[in-house]
Amino acid sequence: MDGFQLHPRLAADTHSLGQAALCEILLVNDAAWPWLILVPRKPGIREAYELEWEQQLQLLRESSALGKGLMAAFDGDKLNVAALGNQVPQLHVHHIVRFEGDPAWPGPVWGRQPPTPYEPAALEQRLAQLAPVVAAVQAAG
Predict the structure, then answer these.
(1) Tens of pLDDT along 7-52?
(2) Where is the HIT domain (predicted)?
(3) Which contiguous run of DSSP H or E holds residue 12?
(4) Residue 36 within any structural domain of the chain
């Protein structure tokens, strides 16, 4: 994946959980929600349709595995999946587990409250919860 660089804002706002066949797997540094991002390791891609057809399918496989794993791990009420890119142009797909009654329910999480960065112990706990989810994403494809 020559030439790929993670956008600086994504790098600053996330923890890397590893790589799948196509995507970087990132944990957003906001403990308020289980919130992961997939970033295809392809330089200059802003939209999913810009990926080659097989890459689009791989993104869907990885996204589906991530969503399924997150909902199983956290027993959420809804999974929000979005690729906005208004502030970060690099293609990245958010996967956010939502719960009825969470601080932003039923609205979007963006701009609702300042991020709550993970404390070290909470981060370790979240990483342990996510380990089987990440393994499933890495196995997708």
Answers:
(1) 999 999 999 999 999 999 999 999 999 999 999 999 999 999 999 9
(2) 36-105
(3) helix 8-13
(4) yes
